[in-house]
């Protein structure tokens, strides 16, 4: 197995952006925070962008409110050789800021008041991903840090992080909205011809369902954005370029469970198809066996002890061991299957902590485990 | 409260939600099998385009059709349906506008995705609308098509928004075919025919999220059903050693002596390793106990399901279903 050397990665000045991705519930946010803490203590000037962190994890970084700005981490007992800033993403505010930055005051107010903008900026499933990318671009652009560690939104699939911005820009940039809101205008005619009468029916159906007002709002919004940004698609493209540039690395975080590893596999294949730099796989929360004792022997001995009733503590310790061997064997099997399919991907197993991480010491401990200490 | 209740047995729509990674789909499938036990017909529905059910039952991806996926003990039957919002929208449009061939072209152009993006609530209305249709469908004999419908719903963070059709409808036009449908959905979801079950693990975060979800469901006037506590490990250490062990105090000499009396001679490192494992185990069990106390605040019927070391395959689903039947699910 090709082992991922986390310290070498963090110490390399050429590492500028680390993206932690993976399906929901695998510990991405904690991993991102632990990497940033370790990097700072090893001398990097790092900033970590977290998305929807658990409250106590946020507090462990000294983050108390969602203010969408990086704040220096000042926590007792934390005196890193380098430096550490941390922030939580506020997607609504990031979107608002983008509008303020690119539109004149009057225009911006119009956009912000548009009901369709309010829907898109809070409930569309791709907005969080899009804004995470936008914020990442801003942090890199500020040139204040030599390492940016990003967490990705808790979507059901790791691929959403790559796909959602494109989906959003397709929706906002697309010709459809223009045709639906003003079908008579030029540009729509070509497609109308192909689809024929069905399109008229569809427009009618859509406006019956969502209402003509909403279509109108959407159209106004898209036209305003269009003139403002020169198209969402270009903006998404710029972020893609950043992700593909040297200095960016993707760390895929997965639990040693079939579903999470399957997602990780999809993601690894996708990154390679997109020419995006895969740094390695973090197999999170593993349960390595700590005593070299066969499970069968342990079970048999526990049976004997339980029958005699002499040494309940030793019997229990042996049962714990047998359970642990069974779990470890399964994890090893699953990871071996992943490695067979992706032999070139460096991998590091991070042994599970028995309790939740909620302070700096916990993050340091995860960091040590990531580094294989 | 422990075990299933009569009130839950009267529900016809069982919505299953939980924090990501808690095993929501597994529990939904086991619940469907348990409900089908004894000769009933149950439909298991998924709505997030994940094909999680097909994967669980080791089958090719499900089409947009109700297919028999498993038989249950006692002549029961589970069918499965993966609801696709695009297909559901076309189904509606077809009913009212006869789109025919044009529908397919629109789909290729992404027009449907576009419409559901314009009004995100539309997607949820379409999905819950299809579920309602399955719950209410009646055979020519006058009996319901399904004795129960189990819905593998979105995770806790999104489930209330998903089920809050009233809110979604505010986004939609004030009249029209979907509007009419939605009123029936609202009625079903807020009636005694529906129970929203939560899947939790005995860890702090999933438990807190479960409690938050219960409060949110109450606030939205949706009825929380049972809490399924998934992946419960058996506590191995004797209760009296547990607290000390969780603080790192395990008598290594006693362990060594005990091992020796069972004929196991091990070196110091191995004893240390065994002790460390026991300490970690004790810490986890204590954390689980605290999580359980916290979970009791929800004051809902709770059902525990064991951790399956070998992972979840079809045989394991039957095993879990049997556990549920043993806890009174019917």
Reconstruct the topology from this structure.
The complex is a heterodimer of chains A (about 375) and B (about 325).
Chain A lengths: L5 H6 L5 E5 L6 H14 L3 E6 L4 H6 L10 E2 L10 E6 L2 H12 L2 H9 L1 H9 L3 H16 L4 E5 L8 H14 L1 H7 L7 H7 L1 H14 L1 H18 L2 H13 L3 E8 L2 H16 L4 E9 L8 H14 L3 H30 L5 E5 L8 H11 L3
Parallel strand pairs in A: 1-5, 1-6, 2-4, 2-5, 6-7, 7-8
Antiparallel strand pairs in A: 3-4
Chain B lengths: L5 H4 L3 E6 L5 H13 L4 E6 L5 H5 L10 E6 L3 E7 L2 H13 L3 H8 L2 H8 L1 H17 L11 E5 L3 H8 L1 H7 L5 H13 L4 E7 L3 H16 L4 E9 L6 H8 L5 H10 L6 H29 L5 E5 L7 H13 L4
Parallel strand pairs in B: 1-5, 1-6, 2-4, 2-5, 6-7, 7-8
Antiparallel strand pairs in B: 3-4
Helix pairs in contact in B: 2-15, 4-7, 6-7, 7-9, 7-10, 8-11, 11-14, 12-14
GO molecular function, one term (chain A): ATP hydrolysis activity
InterPro entries (chain A): ArsA/GET3_ATPase-like, ATPase_ArsA/GET3, P-loop_NTPase
Protein name (chain A): Anion transporter
């Amino acid at each position: 197995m090709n082992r991922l050397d986390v310290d070498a990665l963090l110490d390399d000045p050429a590492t500028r952006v680390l993206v932690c991705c993976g399906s929901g519930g695998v510990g991405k946010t904690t991993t991102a925070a632990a990497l940033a803490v370790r990097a700072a203590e090893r001398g990097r000037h790092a900033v970590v962008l977290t998305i929807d962190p658990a409250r106590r994890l946020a507090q462990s970084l000294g983050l108390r409110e969602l203010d969408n700005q990086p704040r220096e981490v000042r926590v007792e007992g934390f005196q890193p050789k380098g430096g550490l800033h941390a922030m939580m993403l506020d997607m609504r505010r990031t979107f608002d800021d983008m509008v303020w930055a690119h539109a004149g005051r009057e225009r911006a107010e119009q956009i912000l008041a548009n009901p369709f903008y309010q829907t898109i900026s809070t409930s569309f499933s791709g907005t969080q991903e899009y804004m995470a990318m936008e914020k990442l671009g801003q942090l890199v652009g500020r040139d204040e840090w030599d390492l940016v560690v990003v967490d990705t939104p808790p979507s059901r699939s790791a691929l959403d992080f790559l796909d959602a911005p494109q989906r959003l820009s397709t929706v906002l940039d697309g010709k459809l909205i223009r045709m639906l809101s003003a079908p008579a205008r030029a540009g729509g005619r070509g497609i109308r011809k192909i689809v024929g009468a069905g399109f008229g029916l569809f427009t009618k159906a859509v406006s019956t369902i969502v209402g003509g007002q909403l279509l109108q709002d959407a159209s106004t919004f898209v036209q305003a954005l269009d003139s403002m940004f020169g198209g969402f698609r270009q903006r998404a493209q710029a972020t893609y370029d950043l992700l593909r540039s040297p200095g960016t690395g993707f760390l895929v975080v997965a639990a040693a469970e079939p579903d999470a590893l399957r997602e990780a596999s999809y993601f690894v294949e996708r990154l390679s198809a997109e020419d995006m730099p895969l740094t390695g796989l973090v197999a999170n929360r593993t349960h390595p066996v700590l005593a070299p004792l066969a499970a069968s022997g342990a079970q048999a001995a526990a049976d004997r002890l339980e029958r005699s009733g002499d040494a309940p503590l030793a019997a229990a310790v042996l049962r714990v061991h047998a359970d642990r061997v069974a779990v470890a064997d399964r994890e090893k099997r699953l990871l071996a299957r992943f490695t067979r399919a992706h032999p070139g991907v460096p991998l590091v197993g991070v042994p599970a902590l028995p309790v939740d991480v909620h302070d700096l010491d916990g993050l340091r401990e995860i960091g040590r485990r990531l580094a294989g200490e | 409260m422990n075990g299933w209740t009569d009130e839950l047995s009267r529900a016809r729509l069982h919505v299953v939600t939980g924090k990501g990674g808690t095993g929501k789909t597994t529990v939904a499938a086991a619940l469907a099998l348990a409900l089908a036990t004894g000769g009933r017909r149950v439909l298991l529905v998924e709505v997030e385009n994940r094909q999680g059910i097909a994967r669980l039952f080791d089958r090719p991806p499900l089409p947009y059709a109700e297919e028999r996926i498993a038989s249950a003990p006692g002549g029961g039957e589970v069918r499965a349906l993966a609801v696709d919002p695009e297909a559901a929208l076309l189904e509606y449009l077809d009913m009212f506008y006869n789109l025919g061939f044009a529908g397919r072209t629109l789909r290729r152009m992404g027009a449907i995705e576009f419409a559901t993006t314009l009004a995100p609530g539309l997607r949820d209305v379409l999905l819950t609308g299809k579920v309602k249709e399955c719950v209410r469908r009646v055979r020519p004999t006058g009996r319901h098509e399904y004795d129960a419908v189990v819905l593998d719903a979105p995770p806790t963070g999104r489930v209330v928004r998903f089920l809050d059709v009233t809110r979604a409808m505010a986004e939609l036009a004030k009249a029209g075919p979907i509007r009419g449908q939605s009123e029936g959905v609202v009625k079903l979801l807020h009636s005694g025919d529906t129970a929203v079950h939560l899947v939790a693990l005995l860890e702090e975060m999933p438990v807190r999220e479960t409690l938050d979800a219960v409060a949110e469901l109450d606030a939205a006037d949706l009825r929380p059903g049972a809490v399924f506590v998934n992946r419960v490990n058996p506590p191995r250490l004797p209760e009296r050693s547990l607290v000390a062990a969780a603080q790192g105090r395990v008598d290594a000499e006693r362990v060594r002596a005990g091992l020796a009396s069972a004929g196991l001679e091990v070196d110091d490192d191995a004893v240390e390793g065994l002790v460390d494992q026991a300490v970690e185990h004790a810490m986890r069990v204590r954390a689980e106990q605290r999580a359980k106390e916290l979970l009791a605040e929800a004051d809902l019927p709770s059902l525990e399901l064991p951790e399956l070391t070998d992972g979840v395959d079809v045989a394991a689903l039957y095993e879990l279903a049997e556990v549920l039947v043993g806890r009174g699910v019917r």
